[in-house]
Every structure is written in C-alpha cells, then in structure tokens.
Amino acid sequence: MEKENLKSKLIDLFYKSFETMSYKTSLEALNNYSKVDKLPDEIIDFVFGAFIEPNLKEIKNNIYKNSLLIDIPIDMENITYYILPTEENNTYFILDKKYKKIIKINSEIDVIGNSLQKFSDYSVIIEKDIDILNPFFLANDLKSINRNLYVIINREIEAFLQIKEYDKGELNNIKIFKNVLEFEEYFIESEDYFPRNTVKYDNNPINRLEEIRERIHVYRINKKCTKRPLLSIGIPSSERGTFALSNIIHTLNTQFDYEIEVILSDNASTTLPQYYNIIKNIQDSRLVYNRNDINLGYHGNVRKLIELGRAKYMLFNCDTDVLLLDMLDEILAIIRDMKVEYSQIITDSNNICSSENNYLESPYYAIRDLSLNSNYLFNNIFNLDLIKKTKFIEYLDVNAEHSEFILNYYHMAIDLFLETFGKIYVFNDPVIRQYDGETAYLAGKKFVYLKIDEFEDFEDFTYKYNSEFRIDDRDDRILANGYVIGNKIVNNIPRVYSIAGRTAQHISCAKLLKDILYDKNLISEFILAYLRLYIKTLFLIGLNAGYNYKKTDLKNKEIMDKIEKSMNYINKENEKFYQLLQDYEKKSGISLELEEIKNDIKDEYEKFIKNINLTFLNE
Question: What are the protein's UniProt keywords (predicted)?
Fold first, then answer.
C-alpha cells in the first residue's frame, strides 16, 4: 500500500510540475518512481510526446553525425535511450523506453577538484547503474587541464549523442569503448597514457581497471615506446655503482610507463663495475644506460644526459639520492597541464618565490628570487628544448676549460641562462630526498699541489687548475696551494676549498652574466645578478676562511692578506662591471644610478670585513 501511495504521489508531482514548466522537478519525480517500479505506458507516451517527438528529426541527425565522429555505429531505427533536457542549463535526464524508466544524469562530480591522481587521464565505466555521468560534458571539462577521457559504457551513450551535433575538436579527447575487453585491447596497441583516475565505476566489487593496469604496465615496460616521454629523469654517476643500482631499482618501481624515461650516465667508472653491468642489463624499456669511454668530468657527464634526454623536461637526480615517487604525479601534472612553456620548474624552493601563484613571468623576477640561490643541481627541472635549440651547450663547451664556474657549477650556468627567459614555475615541495652521507659530487680527479703562491698569474688560474681537490690518504692538515690548511671531511674523504678557487669562480661567473644578460640587453637583470654574485662570493670566501683557515698554523694577518689579495682581483671585476654600465648609460641615455650601485657593493664589503674580523677575533 505504501509503495502504491508513493507512486501515486510521484505521478501527481510529475503532472503538476510539468504544468508549471518545472521540468527538472517533474523528471526528478519520474526518476524516483523508476527506482520503485517501471513507469506506466501512458507516462512513457506523455514524456515521449512532450520532450522528444518535436525534436526527433534533429535528434536522429545528431546521432548519425556524432556516431561517425566517435566511430560507434548506432542503429537509429532501434533507439531506446533519449535525452530529456530541462529548464536548467546542462541538466538532463534519459528516457529508457525499453525498460520504462527515467535515468538521472550525474552532473555533480567535481572531477578536477576531487581527483586523487594529479597526472593521469580519466576513465568512466558505466554498467547497470541508475545515475550515470555525461561523458561529453566531462570530456570538455578535462580538456581544460589537458586530459583525455576513456569511456566504457553500454547503450545509454546514444542518448548523449542527441544533445547537439559535435565537431571533431570537441570530441578529440574522448574515446568510447563497448566493453572492458575492447578497452584493454586498445591500450595494448596504442601508446596513450593509461587512465588511472576512475571517475565512475560499476557495482562490481572487483576493480577490473586495476587488474588491466597491471597487465598493461608489465607489457609496456617490455616494449619500447616511440612516443616522446613527458619527463626524462637524468642520473649522473661515477664510481658509485652500488648507489646507482639501488637508485635505478627504486626509480623504476614507479607505475608510470610511457610518461617517463630514466637515463643513467656512468662516467667511465672502474670501481665495482659489476653493479653498473647489472644496471645495463635491466630489462625495462624506460631505462637508458650510457657509459662514457673516458671520465668527462662532472660538467661533461651532465652534458651527456642533456644530449640523451628525449623529453622536453629533465629532472636531475644524484645516484646517491632518492626520488620521491609519489611526487611524480605532481610534477607530471605541472608539465602536462601547463598553459605556457616553462623554462624551468624549480622544486624544494622553501617558499622563496614572492609570487602568489608560484609562477615567475619575467626574467627580472626569476633573477631576483632564484639566481645563485643554491649550489645543488638536483632541485631543478630544465627545459631541454630551450637548452638545445639555443645552442647554449656549445657556448658552455667553448668556455668551460677557462671557467671555474662552468667546470664546477655547470648546472648553475644553465640555471642562470634559463632564468633569462622568465616563465619559471616554482614548486615548494621536495621531489628528491638527499642522502646525507655524501655531497652530490665529490671533487674531480685533478690532484694539484702548488709550490708557489696560489695567486701567481691569477688571471690565468682557471686555465691551469681546478679549485676543488679530492685528497686521499693524507694527514688532517696538508700542503695545498702553498699553504697548510684545514679541510672538510665528507664521508671520510677530505674536501678542500681554496679562496683562490672561489675568486676564480666569481671571475668566470661574472663573464657568464655579461654574456647571457648584458649582451641580451637585460640590464636590470644584469645589475641584480651581479650584486647577488658579489654577495655570494663574499659569503663563500668568508665561509672558506672561517672553516679552512681558522684552525691552521696561519696567523690572522696572513689570512687577511689572502683575502685582501682575493678582493683585489674581485675589485677588478667590479671595475669591468661599472664600465659596462657606463657604456650602457652613454649608449642609451638612461641613468642607471651607478653611484648607488657602487655604494651597495661598498656596504656589502664593509659588512663582510666586519664579519671576518669577528670570526678571527679570538685567534
């Protein structure tokens, strides 16, 4: 009796709402009725006559043209599902004429906001369910974030094809499948990214998509992809095969397949070569193994990775560090959904970006917030296309032999260059977990012990010597560069820095700034970058003096003399800097307030000397 009363009330509500043109309410009533029982024939006929017959010609025309577009043939003579619009925009119901029910279309899912998977495409499976999604509206929403939609659906699809006549552009990110088997066969044959985001699933307790995903993944890591990956993960390695093997095994555990490639470049290692041989023989289509015939140095090995990278973007990872696999979703989403072409993606930024939306549009803001901010390579994702097509690598090759900065901070040279384009996305979270036991790269293999003053023929210093030395099996204090100095021990290997080396790096970086900023007429950026370089150089010289020389046999005056000699060379660079600005003022007629810039440099130097004196006050 209660059931009959409910049905009667719902029919009354339908008619009354229809008379007042509240079509959504009227069809909601029939949708609720359908959950209880089949609709009476007279109601079906009424709905058909009121909503469908006036538009039947247009409906059939739309179905015919749309079914050709999506390659799903529809028998127009046996249509049983019809779309029912209401007075509200984008609000629809479906009339199932065969089973005599009204199906409500679910339009309340916030696909973009509620997605747990940040990167992936989306799939919709609709089988034997009352409320269904409108895949065409869904596909249009997903297009705004550069995603595709794969729909496994039964014959209700014919109703959606009646709404309007689509064009190819509207449907170019949607693919329809008749069943799950057809869906799986498609991903075996194609190189589309597998859609791990399931928006709507049927009532089957076994998630068949997960099973399919596992099978597809196993298949794909054994089949080389011709499609360009979205991200290359570059791992330079030297003499650390054990670390490198662990790193590769860990990185390849990610469930991404055609989206990424992982490149390891072995820099002619001779220590425990069997571990590199294991890496070389790993059967995974995403892995690219390269071995250099000779040790190319740090800069050469990074260059090799850039050459090998097929993706537009490369994320660098040290062989001793760990890639946080769950962050790949985030990074791939940034790359895939970008509205502009980023020159870099900076990660682990510790909120240094002053922009509210984590996007630095102009080179000035990029230089201001990011330049010379870190010595560490493995928080940068570089735009390889920009590096390659501008031939910046060739510039580095020409200048590397005479540049301490390029030799030791190759990645920072690229970083500075890319900042001149602006368009940098700043991502605050870490993507790499650094291994505390070692620095990213221990110093190179040149062993240099000068028997003369380290500033002799200083302008040509960078041609002759590296500034960092790896020293094995030595006492805690050794003779290097003509002085008994202290050292920093990293993983039981002493690592020595010289003030001369820091000064040489300043000189060669100043030249780099001129070449990539001043010569591009980025004058404001050039001034800003040079001031940041000057401040950083003072900091590093002070750090080296305080750490390396404080507990040595050198007297305070000797240390201050070394610093003073260093500053003589840096002041020569300052004079070159001032001259460039004067030349620009004459050429352009624009005042750069040069005296104010000089005063800023003078103030920084006075603060530096004050701190140095405090450091050695008690010695």
Answer: Glycosyltransferase, Transferase
